[in-house]
Design a protein that fits this description.
By secondary structure, the chain is an alpha+beta fold. It is built from 8 helices and 15 strands. The chain is globular.
Protein backbone atom coordinates (compact mmCIF):
# COMPACT_ATOMS: atom_id res chain seq x y z
CA UNK A 1 0.00 0.00 0.00
CA UNK A 2 1.42 3.36 -1.05
CA UNK A 3 0.74 5.94 1.65
CA UNK A 4 1.93 8.69 -0.69
CA UNK A 5 -0.57 8.02 -3.46
CA UNK A 6 -0.69 11.67 -4.57
CA UNK A 7 3.07 11.96 -4.89
CA UNK A 8 4.20 11.14 -8.45
CA UNK A 9 6.46 8.14 -8.82
CA UNK A 10 9.90 8.79 -10.34
CA UNK A 11 9.90 8.05 -14.07
CA UNK A 12 12.64 5.46 -14.51
CA UNK A 13 12.71 5.65 -18.30
CA UNK A 14 13.58 9.35 -18.29
CA UNK A 15 16.64 8.89 -16.07
CA UNK A 16 19.61 8.91 -18.41
CA UNK A 17 22.01 8.12 -15.58
CA UNK A 18 20.59 4.63 -15.08
CA UNK A 19 19.94 2.61 -18.23
CA UNK A 20 17.39 -0.18 -18.21
CA UNK A 21 20.13 -2.78 -18.58
CA UNK A 22 21.69 -1.57 -15.33
CA UNK A 23 18.44 -2.08 -13.46
CA UNK A 24 18.26 -5.64 -14.70
CA UNK A 25 21.83 -6.22 -13.54
CA UNK A 26 20.61 -5.50 -10.01
CA UNK A 27 18.60 -8.69 -9.75
CA UNK A 28 15.48 -7.10 -11.26
CA UNK A 29 15.19 -4.48 -8.53
CA UNK A 30 11.66 -3.26 -7.91
CA UNK A 31 11.97 0.50 -8.39
CA UNK A 32 8.52 1.35 -7.05
CA UNK A 33 8.24 4.17 -4.54
CA UNK A 34 9.25 3.78 -0.91
CA UNK A 35 7.58 1.36 1.46
CA UNK A 36 6.51 4.05 3.90
CA UNK A 37 6.20 3.53 7.61
CA UNK A 38 3.01 4.49 9.49
CA UNK A 39 2.55 8.21 10.00
CA UNK A 40 1.20 9.57 13.29
CA UNK A 41 -2.12 11.30 12.75
CA UNK A 42 -0.75 14.55 14.14
CA UNK A 43 1.53 14.96 11.11
CA UNK A 44 -0.77 13.76 8.33
CA UNK A 45 -2.13 17.20 7.47
CA UNK A 46 1.38 18.66 7.42
CA UNK A 47 2.57 15.94 5.03
CA UNK A 48 -0.43 16.37 2.74
CA UNK A 49 0.44 20.06 2.51
CA UNK A 50 4.01 19.25 1.52
CA UNK A 51 2.80 16.80 -1.14
CA UNK A 52 0.39 19.33 -2.63
CA UNK A 53 3.21 21.84 -2.74
CA UNK A 54 5.42 19.38 -4.62
CA UNK A 55 2.73 18.70 -7.18
CA UNK A 56 2.09 22.40 -7.79
CA UNK A 57 5.71 23.55 -7.89
CA UNK A 58 8.01 23.87 -10.87
CA UNK A 59 10.43 20.91 -10.63
CA UNK A 60 13.29 23.13 -11.76
CA UNK A 61 12.59 26.01 -9.40
CA UNK A 62 14.42 26.69 -6.15
CA UNK A 63 12.40 25.93 -3.05
CA UNK A 64 13.27 28.69 -0.65
CA UNK A 65 9.92 29.05 1.07
CA UNK A 66 9.82 25.52 2.49
CA UNK A 67 10.34 26.55 6.09
CA UNK A 68 9.86 23.93 8.75
CA UNK A 69 11.05 23.62 12.31
CA UNK A 70 13.67 20.91 12.40
CA UNK A 71 13.86 18.43 15.24
CA UNK A 72 17.24 18.27 16.92
CA UNK A 73 18.83 14.89 16.11
CA UNK A 74 22.09 13.87 17.81
CA UNK A 75 23.95 10.56 17.65
CA UNK A 76 25.49 8.56 20.51
CA UNK A 77 27.18 5.16 20.39
CA UNK A 78 28.91 2.33 22.24
CA UNK A 79 30.57 -0.89 21.13
CA UNK A 80 32.02 -4.01 22.73
CA UNK A 81 34.07 -6.85 21.26
CA UNK A 82 32.37 -9.41 23.46
CA UNK A 83 33.38 -13.04 23.14
CA UNK A 84 34.75 -12.72 19.60
CA UNK A 85 38.51 -12.71 18.99
CA UNK A 86 38.22 -9.69 16.69
CA UNK A 87 36.00 -6.61 16.57
CA UNK A 88 34.27 -6.87 13.19
CA UNK A 89 31.61 -4.18 13.74
CA UNK A 90 31.99 -0.58 12.56
CA UNK A 91 29.77 2.45 12.98
CA UNK A 92 29.55 5.98 11.58
CA UNK A 93 27.95 9.01 13.24
CA UNK A 94 27.92 12.24 11.20
CA UNK A 95 25.46 14.79 12.59
CA UNK A 96 26.56 17.47 10.10
CA UNK A 97 26.71 15.40 6.91
CA UNK A 98 25.51 18.41 4.89
CA UNK A 99 29.01 19.86 5.29
CA UNK A 100 30.43 16.86 3.41
CA UNK A 101 28.18 17.17 0.35
CA UNK A 102 29.51 19.43 -2.44
CA UNK A 103 27.03 21.80 -4.12
CA UNK A 104 24.18 20.82 -1.80
CA UNK A 105 20.99 22.70 -2.63
CA UNK A 106 20.38 25.57 -0.14
CA UNK A 107 16.87 24.26 0.62
CA UNK A 108 18.50 21.34 2.48
CA UNK A 109 19.55 22.81 5.80
CA UNK A 110 19.93 19.52 7.67
CA UNK A 111 21.49 16.30 6.43
CA UNK A 112 22.75 13.65 8.86
CA UNK A 113 24.16 10.18 8.33
CA UNK A 114 24.31 7.23 10.74
CA UNK A 115 25.30 3.64 10.08
CA UNK A 116 26.20 0.31 11.69
CA UNK A 117 28.11 -2.37 9.77
CA UNK A 118 28.38 -5.92 11.12
CA UNK A 119 31.22 -7.80 9.46
CA UNK A 120 31.58 -11.55 9.02
CA UNK A 121 34.55 -13.54 7.80
CA UNK A 122 36.78 -10.68 8.90
CA UNK A 123 36.65 -6.93 9.54
CA UNK A 124 37.79 -5.63 6.14
CA UNK A 125 34.35 -5.33 4.51
CA UNK A 126 32.80 -3.52 7.47
CA UNK A 127 35.76 -1.14 7.75
CA UNK A 128 35.69 -0.43 4.02
CA UNK A 129 31.94 0.25 4.05
CA UNK A 130 32.27 2.49 7.10
CA UNK A 131 35.03 4.48 5.40
CA UNK A 132 33.61 4.65 1.89
CA UNK A 133 29.82 4.38 1.69
CA UNK A 134 29.11 7.89 2.99
CA UNK A 135 31.89 9.28 0.76
CA UNK A 136 30.19 7.76 -2.28
CA UNK A 137 26.85 9.09 -1.07
CA UNK A 138 28.23 12.62 -0.68
CA UNK A 139 29.54 12.55 -4.25
CA UNK A 140 26.30 11.19 -5.75
CA UNK A 141 23.84 13.09 -3.54
CA UNK A 142 21.16 14.81 -5.67
CA UNK A 143 21.94 18.50 -6.30
CA UNK A 144 18.25 19.41 -6.49
CA UNK A 145 15.85 21.08 -4.06
CA UNK A 146 14.60 19.30 -0.95
CA UNK A 147 11.19 18.59 -2.45
CA UNK A 148 12.76 17.11 -5.59
CA UNK A 149 15.23 14.93 -3.68
CA UNK A 150 12.31 12.62 -2.87
CA UNK A 151 12.22 11.56 -6.53
CA UNK A 152 15.90 10.64 -6.66
CA UNK A 153 17.06 9.50 -3.24
CA UNK A 154 16.04 5.84 -3.47
CA UNK A 155 17.85 5.35 -6.75
CA UNK A 156 20.85 7.22 -5.35
CA UNK A 157 21.08 4.99 -2.28
CA UNK A 158 20.86 1.83 -4.38
CA UNK A 159 23.61 3.11 -6.67
CA UNK A 160 25.81 4.01 -3.71
CA UNK A 161 25.45 0.58 -2.09
CA UNK A 162 26.23 -1.09 -5.40
CA UNK A 163 29.28 1.13 -6.03
CA UNK A 164 30.65 0.50 -2.52
CA UNK A 165 30.19 -3.24 -2.95
CA UNK A 166 31.94 -3.23 -6.34
CA UNK A 167 34.84 -1.18 -4.99
CA UNK A 168 35.37 -3.54 -2.08
CA UNK A 169 35.21 -6.61 -4.31
CA UNK A 170 37.91 -5.12 -6.56
CA UNK A 171 40.20 -4.81 -3.52
CA UNK A 172 39.22 -8.29 -2.32
CA UNK A 173 40.12 -10.01 -5.60
CA UNK A 174 43.49 -8.26 -5.94
CA UNK A 175 44.88 -10.09 -2.91
CA UNK A 176 46.09 -13.70 -2.83
CA UNK A 177 44.20 -15.44 -1.40
CA UNK A 178 41.14 -13.30 -2.09
CA UNK A 179 39.36 -11.73 0.86
CA UNK A 180 36.21 -13.57 1.88
CA UNK A 181 34.83 -10.81 4.13
CA UNK A 182 31.27 -9.52 4.02
CA UNK A 183 29.19 -7.11 6.05
CA UNK A 184 25.59 -6.20 6.80
CA UNK A 185 24.56 -2.54 6.80
CA UNK A 186 21.91 -0.43 8.45
CA UNK A 187 21.97 3.23 7.37
CA UNK A 188 19.74 6.08 8.51
CA UNK A 189 19.87 9.26 6.45
CA UNK A 190 18.06 12.27 7.95
CA UNK A 191 17.03 14.93 5.42
CA UNK A 192 15.24 17.81 7.13
CA UNK A 193 12.61 15.93 9.20
CA UNK A 194 12.46 12.79 7.06
CA UNK A 195 14.29 9.52 7.67
CA UNK A 196 15.46 7.29 4.84
CA UNK A 197 16.50 3.86 6.10
CA UNK A 198 18.55 1.50 3.92
CA UNK A 199 19.54 -1.96 5.11
CA UNK A 200 21.25 -5.17 4.09
CA UNK A 201 21.23 -8.27 6.28
CA UNK A 202 20.11 -8.60 9.88
CA UNK A 203 21.25 -5.41 11.60
CA UNK A 204 18.15 -3.48 12.68
CA UNK A 205 16.81 -0.01 13.35
CA UNK A 206 13.78 0.89 15.46
CA UNK A 207 11.98 4.15 16.22
CA UNK A 208 10.65 4.88 19.70
CA UNK A 209 7.28 6.56 19.13
CA UNK A 210 4.55 7.44 21.61
CA UNK A 211 1.25 5.70 20.82
CA UNK A 212 -1.63 7.80 22.07
CA UNK A 213 -4.13 4.94 21.94
CA UNK A 214 -1.92 2.62 23.98
CA UNK A 215 -0.69 5.55 26.10
CA UNK A 216 2.89 4.32 25.97
CA UNK A 217 6.00 4.34 23.81
CA UNK A 218 6.18 1.56 21.24
CA UNK A 219 8.91 0.32 18.91
CA UNK A 220 8.31 0.98 15.21
CA UNK A 221 10.51 -1.31 13.06
CA UNK A 222 12.48 0.72 10.52
CA UNK A 223 14.05 -2.28 8.75
CA UNK A 224 13.42 -5.91 7.87
CA UNK A 225 15.87 -8.79 8.16
CA UNK A 226 17.25 -10.37 5.02
CA UNK A 227 17.29 -14.03 5.91
CA UNK A 228 17.78 -16.89 3.41
CA UNK A 229 14.78 -18.57 5.04
CA UNK A 230 12.46 -15.77 3.90
CA UNK A 231 10.42 -17.07 0.95
CA UNK A 232 11.20 -14.23 -1.48
CA UNK A 233 14.88 -14.22 -0.57
CA UNK A 234 15.10 -18.01 -0.94
CA UNK A 235 13.38 -17.91 -4.33
CA UNK A 236 15.79 -15.22 -5.54
CA UNK A 237 18.79 -17.24 -4.34
CA UNK A 238 17.56 -20.42 -6.00
CA UNK A 239 16.82 -18.57 -9.25
CA UNK A 240 20.44 -17.34 -9.26
CA UNK A 241 21.72 -20.90 -8.88
CA UNK A 242 22.34 -20.94 -5.14
CA UNK A 243 20.62 -22.93 -2.43
CA UNK A 244 19.62 -22.60 1.21
CA UNK A 245 20.76 -25.26 3.65
CA UNK A 246 20.33 -25.12 7.42
CA UNK A 247 18.99 -21.58 7.09
CA UNK A 248 22.13 -20.31 5.32
CA UNK A 249 23.13 -19.55 1.74
CA UNK A 250 25.03 -22.66 0.56
CA UNK A 251 24.91 -23.71 4.22
CA UNK A 252 27.45 -20.99 5.11
CA UNK A 253 26.23 -17.36 4.95
CA UNK A 254 23.51 -16.43 7.43
CA UNK A 255 22.25 -13.36 5.54
CA UNK A 256 20.95 -13.10 1.98
CA UNK A 257 22.13 -9.54 1.29
CA UNK A 258 25.48 -7.96 2.07
CA UNK A 259 28.42 -5.88 0.93
CA UNK A 260 31.31 -8.20 0.09
CA UNK A 261 30.96 -12.01 0.10
CA UNK A 262 32.26 -11.99 -3.47
CA UNK A 263 32.30 -15.76 -3.83
CA UNK A 264 28.52 -15.84 -3.27
CA UNK A 265 27.44 -12.86 -5.40
CA UNK A 266 26.69 -15.11 -8.39
CA UNK A 267 24.64 -17.37 -6.11
CA UNK A 268 22.06 -14.80 -5.08
CA UNK A 269 23.63 -12.66 -2.36
CA UNK A 270 22.96 -9.08 -3.45
CA UNK A 271 24.02 -5.61 -2.32
CA UNK A 272 20.66 -4.02 -3.22
CA UNK A 273 19.21 -2.59 0.02
CA UNK A 274 15.63 -2.32 1.15
CA UNK A 275 14.76 1.35 1.64
CA UNK A 276 12.06 2.80 3.85
CA UNK A 277 10.93 6.34 4.55
CA UNK A 278 9.59 7.80 7.79
CA UNK A 279 8.42 11.28 8.79
CA UNK A 280 9.54 12.44 12.23
CA UNK A 281 6.89 13.78 14.59
CA UNK A 282 6.35 15.24 18.05
CA UNK A 283 5.61 11.69 19.25
CA UNK A 284 9.15 10.44 18.56
CA UNK A 285 11.80 10.08 21.27
CA UNK A 286 14.77 8.32 19.66
CA UNK A 287 16.00 5.98 16.94
CA UNK A 288 18.22 2.99 17.69
CA UNK A 289 20.51 1.13 15.26
CA UNK A 290 22.30 -2.05 16.29
CA UNK A 291 23.93 -5.17 14.93
CA UNK A 292 22.39 -8.58 15.55
CA UNK A 293 24.66 -9.05 18.58
CA UNK A 294 22.16 -6.90 20.51
CA UNK A 295 19.00 -8.44 19.07
CA UNK A 296 20.13 -11.99 19.89
CA UNK A 297 19.49 -11.31 23.59
CA UNK A 298 17.09 -8.32 23.67
CA UNK A 299 13.64 -7.71 22.22
CA UNK A 300 12.73 -4.28 20.90
CA UNK A 301 10.52 -3.71 23.93
CA UNK A 302 13.36 -4.52 26.33
CA UNK A 303 15.65 -2.15 24.48
CA UNK A 304 13.05 0.63 24.74
CA UNK A 305 12.67 0.01 28.46
CA UNK A 306 16.41 0.33 29.10
CA UNK A 307 16.79 3.52 27.06
CA UNK A 308 13.66 5.15 28.46
CA UNK A 309 14.72 4.38 32.02
CA UNK A 310 18.05 6.11 31.34
CA UNK A 311 16.21 9.01 29.71
CA UNK A 312 14.07 9.54 32.81
CA UNK A 313 17.22 10.51 34.65
CA UNK A 314 17.57 13.55 32.39
CA UNK A 315 16.05 16.43 34.34
CA UNK A 316 17.18 18.97 31.76
CA UNK A 317 18.64 19.11 28.27
CA UNK A 318 22.21 19.43 29.51
CA UNK A 319 22.08 15.88 30.89
CA UNK A 320 20.72 14.30 27.71
CA UNK A 321 24.14 13.43 26.31
CA UNK A 322 25.15 11.60 29.48
CA UNK A 323 21.86 9.70 29.65
CA UNK A 324 21.99 8.44 26.07
CA UNK A 325 25.66 7.51 26.36
CA UNK A 326 24.78 5.63 29.54
CA UNK A 327 21.98 3.80 27.71
CA UNK A 328 24.31 2.82 24.85
CA UNK A 329 26.93 1.45 27.23
CA UNK A 330 24.35 -0.37 29.34
CA UNK A 331 22.91 -2.10 26.28
CA UNK A 332 26.26 -3.37 24.95
CA UNK A 333 27.45 -4.43 28.40
CA UNK A 334 24.22 -6.26 29.20
CA UNK A 335 24.23 -7.98 25.83
CA UNK A 336 27.72 -9.35 26.48
CA UNK A 337 26.73 -10.32 30.03
CA UNK A 338 23.75 -12.22 28.62
CA UNK A 339 26.18 -14.23 26.48
CA UNK A 340 25.28 -12.75 23.11
CA UNK A 341 28.43 -14.44 21.79
CA UNK A 342 28.95 -11.68 19.22
CA UNK A 343 30.33 -8.18 18.81
CA UNK A 344 27.77 -5.60 19.94
CA UNK A 345 27.38 -2.08 18.52
CA UNK A 346 24.60 0.37 19.37
CA UNK A 347 23.91 3.83 17.94
CA UNK A 348 21.13 5.97 19.45
CA UNK A 349 19.78 9.09 17.76
CA UNK A 350 18.00 11.39 20.17
CA UNK A 351 15.06 13.36 18.80
CA UNK A 352 14.13 16.60 20.49
CA UNK A 353 11.81 19.39 19.48
CA UNK A 354 13.14 22.93 19.76
CA UNK A 355 11.26 25.00 22.32
Amino acid sequence: MDLFEDLPEPERKKDSTLPESKVQDWNNVNMEFFLDLPLPSSTSSEVRGVKRKLNESDPDSSVTDHAEELYDVQGYYAEKKGEREEMQDCHVVINDFHKHVPQLHPSVSRLSYYAVFDGHGGSRASKFAADQLHVNLALKFPKVSFLQIEKEIKRTLIEVFKKTDEEFLKHATKTKPSWKDGTTAIVVLVIQNILYIANLGDSKAILCRYNKDAEKYVAVPLSIDHSPTDYKERMRIQKAGGCVRDGRVMGIIEVSRSIGDGQYKALGITSVPDIKRCQLSDNDAFILLACDGLWKVFTSEQVLEIVLSSKKECTDGDQEEICYETACNKLVNEAVRKHSGDNVTVVILSIRKHH
